């Protein structure tokens, strides 16, 4: 009888231990089930693609949307790469627009910034001493429509354009238009320093600089420091993207971890369609404001360049 009682007691103890372990295992499984399943790279790429499509859509308020420049490439697929561009948020490319990929990128950004902004809130001026304005020739319909200002190619023209840009940046005009300064190649040292200073003016200045030729400088001349600027470096096939100001891709300042394939040149039909749409806005405003503002004055709600240093080439 004693042996039977002892065996029974041992069985009960083993059963209790097993039940405790089962309960503990069940609790652990419950905790694990509440944890999100780790995403695969393919899942993440798909989610980033969906998110990019939402972010790139123009907002009802007319606020500038992030601008797509190409597709980030991973082993599991690609996703659109968007960058913040607008007042106080600039972009610099190491090579100038004599590299065809850079010329395409600049034209594409002009088109997309104009397309996503509310009509009449962006005006564009260009600097292109290296190619004498050739970078902007495919955008001629925008020039004819009064949306794209004349392209400055000589030292005198570039200085005059920068005079007007600085006056725009220092004007007190409340909700004024965005001045998009597109430098397809680096100007001389003095003008380059003035261009760099515009990137430090902050969002209130209402200026966005797209600067190509960041690494192309006069021998012995250091490239000026830029503020609020996303840096882009090109290799033989891809673009390498630095950390955007205030919204870094990396924790260590190395930028986006994957390479980017830049988008192709916008089709001529898209340029003409945008020129027709924005040109109608310019014509309506010209009817109400027959005289251009003086150099350096901002015109709110207008896409016309208030100061044009010379006829584009």
Task: Describe the structure in your own words.
This protein is of the alpha/beta class and 313 residues long. Helix content is 37%, strand content 17%. The protein has two domains: 1-35; 45-288, P-loop containing nucleotide triphosphate hydrolases (Rossmann fold, 3-Layer(aba) Sandwich). The chain has helices at 2-34, 41-55, 100-116, 140-144, 155-170, 189-198, 268-288; strands spanning 67-74, 77-83, 90-93, 122-127, 148-152, 178-183, 207-212, 229-234, 239-241, 260-262. The strands form two sheets. It has a seven-stranded mixed sheet, with helices on both faces. It has a three-stranded antiparallel sheet with strand order 2-1-10. It starts with a helix and ends in a 25-residue tail after the last helix. The model is unreliable at 291-313 (pLDDT under 50). InterPro entries: P-loop_NTPase. This is Cell division protein FtsK. It comes from Micromonospora rifamycinica.
Architecture blueprint of SSEs:
Elements: H1 2-34, H2 41-55, E1 67-74, E2 77-83, E3 90-93, H3 100-116, E4 122-127, H4 140-144, E5 148-152, H5 155-170, E6 178-183, H6 189-198, E7 207-212, E8 229-234, E9 239-241, E10 260-262, H7 268-288
Parallel strand pairs: 3-7, 3-8, 4-5, 4-6, 6-7
Antiparallel strand pairs: 1-2, 1-10, 8-9
């Amino acid at each position: 009888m004693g042996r039977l009682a002892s065996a029974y007691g041992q069985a009960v103890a083993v059963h209790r231990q097993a039940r405790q372990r089962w309960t503990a295992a069940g609790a652990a499984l419950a905790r694990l089930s509440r944890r999100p399943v780790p995403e695969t790279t393919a899942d993440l790429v798909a989610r980033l693609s969906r998110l990019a499509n939402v972010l790139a859509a123009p907002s009802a308020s007319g606020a500038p949307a992030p601008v797509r420049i190409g597709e980030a490439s991973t082993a599991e697929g690609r996703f659109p790469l968007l960058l913040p561009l607008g007042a106080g948020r600039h972009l610099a490319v190491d090579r100038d627009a004599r590299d065809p990929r850079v010329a395409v990128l600049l034209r594409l950004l002009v088109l997309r910034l104009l397309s996503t902004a509310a009509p009449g809130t962006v005006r564009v001026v260009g600097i292109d001493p290296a190619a004498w304005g050739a970078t902007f020739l495919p955008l001629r319909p925008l020039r004819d429509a009064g949306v794209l200002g004349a392209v400055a190619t000589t030292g005198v023209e570039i200085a005059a354009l920068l005079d007007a840009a600085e006056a725009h940046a220092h004007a007190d005009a409340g909700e004024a238009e965005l001045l998009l300064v597109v430098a397809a190649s680096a100007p001389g040292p003095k003008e380059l320093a003035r261009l760099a200073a515009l990137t430090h003016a902050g969002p209130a200045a209402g200026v966005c600089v797209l600067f190509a030729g960041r690494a192309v400088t006069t021998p012995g001349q250091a490239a000026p420091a830029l503020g609020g600027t996303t840096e882009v470096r090109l290799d033989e096939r891809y673009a390498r993207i630095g950390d955007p100001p205030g919204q870094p891709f990396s924790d260590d300042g190395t930028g986006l971890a994957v390479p980017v394939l830049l988008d192709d040149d916008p089709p001529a039909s898209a340029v003409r369609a945008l020129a027709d749409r924005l040109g109608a806005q310019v014509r309506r405003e010209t009817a109400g404001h027959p005289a251009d503002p003086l150099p350096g004055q901002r015109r709110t709600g207008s896409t016309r360049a208030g100061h044009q240093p010379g006829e584009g080439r």
